[in-house]
Design a protein that fits this description.
Chain B: Keywords: Membrane, Transmembrane, Transmembrane helix. Chain B: GO terms for molecular function: ABC-type transporter activity. Chain B: It comes from Streptomyces hainanensis. Chain B: This is ABC transporter permease. The complex is a heterodimer of chains A (305) and B (240). In chain A, strand 12 and strand 13 form a beta hairpin. Helices cover 35% and strands 29% of the residues of chain A. Chain A is elongated and about 70 Å long. With 305 residues, chain A is α/β, with parallel strands linked by helices. Chain A has a 6-stranded mixed beta sheet, sandwiched between helices. A 4-stranded antiparallel beta sheet of chain A has the order 2-1-4-5, with helices on one face. A 4-stranded antiparallel beta sheet of chain A has the order 12-13-11-14, covered by helices on one side. Chain B has one domain. With 240 residues, chain B is mainly alpha-helical. In chain B, helix 2 packs parallel to helix 6, helix 3 runs antiparallel to helix 6 and helix 7 packs parallel to helix 11. In chain B, 80% of the residues lie in helices and 0% in strands. The relative contact order of chain B is 0.15. The chains are: A alpha/beta (305), B mainly alpha (240). The interface between A and B is medium-sized, with 34 and 32 residues.
Chain lengths: 305, 240
């Protein structure tokens, strides 16, 4: 079990501040690092993987610094974003070379096991240059897993993958997370993060914009109205009761959906008052669903904030 | 200080693909010239010195050095695959020294042996001309490899800068501007050839032997040290 600590870390390149005073802990399990392109995700991952020194602050693996500490790589597996990967080797040779570079006692067995994990044993004898994007990504994964690291860092791992490859990689990452590894992946695509990581860290313009369960983050933004779709035995009676309560700022009757679209301003009060009001009015609730609690809305809210 | 896996990857990068063809072309040309001159002129010490000094040591060795020295590291930095070496519990100095040894080995193989062979073809090693140039080429190979490996870690246009150094500085300035000759790996190695060859070989260097040896050592040592330093703080630019 390993935790990456990022403490009051900044990184600037000349006049450009890529990462601005960020503090976060990446704990075991899957964490999604989310942000638009150019937000500083890669800079953060490079600092976590020892390829960039923080300009200020500290990035540590448990309590060991990562920068200029090659020993940290015994515990870190890195899946870089770039494609360059010794195309003249076969996939098997590539993973074997990685196992040897780690100084593993039985590199052959380790390489074979890693290739099996990513289901690439059948294509292991083919040159990397002949691989599809998804196959390359899997072999990269195998090379990162070959030494059984406790931390797995993936920079935009789903870029350019087709849906089937994406599903496969997600499945693999889920397993890694369940095994207690610290898995961090970056993405600018919301559905990916939403499907895979309950815990997200959002970075916008170099700043740490939000952290935690994305549903909870959404709720914490009480200054932004939350939308719910509600169906009940008597929508109009429920609507009248709701609008009388200060937790609700607007209600619309959606004739197409045959449901109420409710705009709430106070999450906690709304969720406790709604069932009470319904009972007082003798109304039965059939559906209460948050209609915009997708990561997309969290994200666009954060970006515009 | 040496990692066999790093060495294997470097050898395969250098000797695979088109690079091996380019590496082999110049030595092949040297042998062809040697055979042609011998057949047309017979054994001639002066011709041997001209060809081995004027073509082999002045052009072939630096060019092979550029290809092997920069090729040992620059493509990996360029396409980002170096990350697989750097993200390992490996001292970066080990990566550099291993790559340097491979670059030296490749440069030696593609320069010293063909020069020795060409020398024997040209005049049967009379006046030890073949031996002198082979030793000079061996020493120059080491220094070129270190300097061009450093160039590979410093610049994305390592090959261009390497060619400019090899062709413009060493060949052109070296023959026109007296001061430039003193700062030339070719001249330093010539000092060694001058000492080894017989008095009739007509090999002259701009620098004295002790100065040449010191400069060769300094260039190789500094080049290697700074290359390791560069690799130590390599930040994979362009990936942000």
């Amino acid at each position: 079990m390993t935790t990456i600590h990022i403490a009051k870390t900044s990184r600037w390149f000349g006049n450009v501040v890529a990462v601005n005073d960020i503090s976060m802990d990446i704990s075991p399990g899957i964490t999604g690092l989310l942000g638009p392109n150019g937000a500083g995700k890669s800079t953060l991952i490079h600092m976590m993987s020892g390829f960039l020194a923080p300009s200020a602050g500290a990035v540590t693996l448990d309590d060991q610094p990562i920068w200029r500490n090659p020993e940290a790589y015994r515990r870190i597996g890195l899946v870089p974003e770039r494609e360059g990967m010794y195309d003249y080797l076969t996939g098997g040779e590539f993973v074997l070379a990685n196992a040897e570079l780690h100084g593993l006692p039985d590199p052959g067995a380790a390489a074979h096991a890693a290739l099996e994990t990513v289901e690439m044993t059948a294509a292991a004898d083919r040159r990397v240059s002949t691989y599809s994007k998804g196959m390359r990504q899997r072999v990269k994964m195998a090379s990162a897993l070959v030494h059984q690291p406790s931390v797995l860092l993936l920079d935009e791992p789903f870029n350019g993958m087709d849906p089937r490859q994406r599903m496969h990689l997600m499945e693999l990452l889920r397993t890694m997370g369940e095994e207690g590894r610290t898995v961090l992946f970056s993405s600018h695509i919301l559905e990916e993060v939403e499907q895979l990581a309950a815990h997200i860290e959002v970075v916008v313009a170099g700043r740490h914009a939000a952290s935690g369960d994305f549903r909870r983050i959404r709720r914490l933004m009480t200054d932004r109205p939350l939308r719910y779709l509600i169906r009940s035995s008597d929508d109009r009676a429920l609507a009248a009761a709701l609008i009388a309560d200060p937790s609700t700022s607007g209600i619309e009757f959606d004739t197409a959906e045959n449901a109420l679209r409710v705009q709430a301003v106070d999450f906690l009060r709304f969720t406790t008052r709604l069932p009470l009001l319904a009972r007082e009015q003798g109304v039965r609730l059939f559906t209460v669903s948050p209609s915009d609690e997708s990561l997309e809305s969290v994200f666009s809210y954060l970006v515009s904030a | 200080m040496y990692n066999p896996t790093v060495a294997r990857l470097t050898y395969r990068a250098l000797l695979g693909r088109r690079r091996a063809l380019i590496l082999g072309a110049l030595p092949a040309l040297l042998i062809v010239i040697a055979v042609a001159v011998r057949l047309l002129n017979g054994a001639d010490d002066h011709a041997a010195t001209e060809i081995l000094g004027g073509f082999a040591l002045a052009s072939m060795v630096p060019l092979v050095g550029v290809i092997a020295g920069t090729g040992a590291i620059a493509p990996e930095i360029d396409d980002g695959s170096i990350v697989y070496l750097l993200s390992k519990p490996l001292d970066r100095r080990t990566i550099i020294t291993t790559k340097l040894l491979v670059a030296i080995g490749v440069t030696l193989a593609f320069t010293t042996l063909p020069i020795l062979l060409a020398g024997f073809i040209l005049n049967g090693n009379s006046q030890v001309i073949a031996g002198a140039f082979a030793v000079a080429a061996a020493v120059a190979s080491i220094a070129y490899s270190a300097v061009f490996l450093l160039l590979g870690t410093v610049s994305r246009n390592a090959v261009v800068f390497g060619l400019v150094y090899a062709l413009v500085w060493e060949a052109l300035f070296g023959s026109l501007v007296p001061g430039a000759r003193a700062l030339s790996i070719q001249q330093w190695s010539l000092a060694i050839a001058e000492r080894i060859a017989g008095p009739g070989a007509d090999i002259t260097s701009e620098v004295s032997l002790p100065a040449a040896l010191i400069l060769l050592l300094v260039a190789t040592g500094l080049g290697t040290w700074y290359a390791a330093r560069r690799l130590g703080s390599l930040t994979l630019a362009g990936e942000r």
